[in-house]
Amino acid sequence: MLEIGDPSRFHSSREAISYCGLCSAQRESAGKEQRGPLSKKRNKHLQTILIEAAELAPRWNAQLAELHEKELAKGNRNRATLAVARKLVEYLLAVDRRGTAFEERQSQVA
């Protein structure tokens, strides 16, 4: 968490995900939007650590494994890993805001 500094400065998980470099670059011209590869405006240390953690996390967390499989079914392993990394950022922010330890919730069958 030292790389992030004060996590309360992020008003949403989207801002934190962007800071960590886990979203695509976005260009806009003449009212047209174009999405490119991962943004280069990032904290490269955090990006590297989160992607490495996201490659291992599905082995230990059922919810992350489910997310990874869902994204992998769409056909791109790298996008599946990025989805898990984004979810890890959301988990980290939630743990920090609540001030409690992370507890894995059992997925509910509908």
UniProtKB/TrEMBL annotation:
Protein name, as recorded: Transposase
One GO MF term: transposase activity
InterPro entries: Transpos_IS110 (IPR047650), Transposase_20 (IPR003346)
One Gene Ontology biological process: DNA transposition
Domain Transposase IS116/IS110/IS902 C-terminal: 2-68
Originating organism: Desulfuromonas acetoxidans (strain DSM 684 / 11070)
